[in-house]
Amino acid sequence: MAAVSALEDAATTWLCRELPKCSVGADGPAQGGVKPLVDTSLFALVRARLHPADGVQERFFRHLRQEVERPGYRDLLVRNGDFVNFYGLPYAALVTMGEDGSAGRLVRTVIRSGVPLWTERPPHRRLDVLFFLRVLGISVGGGPDEVLSLSSLVSDPNVLLVTEQESYAMAHTAMYATEFGQRRAVWPDIDLADVRDLLDVLLRRAVATGRVDLAAELVCGAVSVCDGRVAVDLAPFLDLLESSRREDGSWPRYAEDRSGPENWPRSHHATLVVALALTMVRRALEPGPYPVGQCGRADGWTHRGRVGREVDAVLSRAAPAASPAASPAAGRPGGRAPVRTAAGPGALWDVPGTDRHGWIAALEERVLRGEAGRREVCDGVLLLTSWQDEDGLIRCCDDGEHHAGSTASALHVLNAARHQLAAL
After folding, report:
1. Mean pLDDT of 380-404
2. How is residue 291 annotated by DSSP?
3. Residue 394: is it exposed, middle or buried by C-beta count within 10 angstroms (0-12/13-18/19+)?
4. CA 405 to the chain's CA centroid
């Protein structure tokens, strides 16, 4: 709690200091466009709902009151009706404080026109709109639970093939479907342990590759889908924040940019989502019913059962193919091809391309060190199965030696998966 509070205070202090830059002035939006103002509104809204007695956000709301009365802000609302959920967030934040300023009539007129709901959006963006409408007390057909059932978060994706952009989408889905951990969503017929595992692996990947803002958003998502207690390992995330924080109290989007020239809009967004994540974590660590427990099916065998069947099938085919007698690399110890050892911590998270052998070796290395979690191992198995030919070899290139080496490496991963599944 002490570490979380100290980092949250640093982030919030920097955001307060930068408020004048988050403006729709007479000459148009200030540095970074409208997004910093909108992001600030979301942070103030969520913080006010989680910590209503906290006086810090009054500085944010004082600034928002000033901004929503500007002619330039009302002009943005009128000209961007299809994105009223984005431009209307400063107004929605004030509604949470029981205020309804002059922008309210414009916002409701745009919503009544139906434009925000006509616009085609992917599920996580549709959930943004529905969250905005719920804050204003407006109900529409096709609520968040229906949209949640269409999202990639609940489609059992292979975590090793999830892109960075898809990771952002899944974090957003978890946040908005649950209203940042304050609403019990109606989940499809899935095991929520798989969803939590998915977000946990994506979080560890973001931390390992130094993606500060993505890691923060994934913490928000992970807290949102908890079953009433925070089961996320926060230590690596907090270490990343400590090591990547700039001297002025802000955070870069990427940890390696800490000492580089500042990109203010990116720094603002990164620092804000860090503050949001820490605010949610602090509330979760305090007494009280937060986050609300998310409930799904409890059997937990859909994903694990599918992986178990694949493990058995692949092992039965791969074992003869990887034997020393069948291996062109039989002269090497264990019949294995050389393992790539220069791979950095993020190498495994690159979508496998031409260097499948190196990728398999990186996965094997994590497994043998005990660093790979259940979801990572299981989804690695599903990926390996797609590379196995009718002879049982894991084919990664035209080099027969690498066939045998990759198959031997894959066997370590497959056996680890079988042991992990048996332990559940």
Report:
1. 69
2. S
3. buried
4. 34
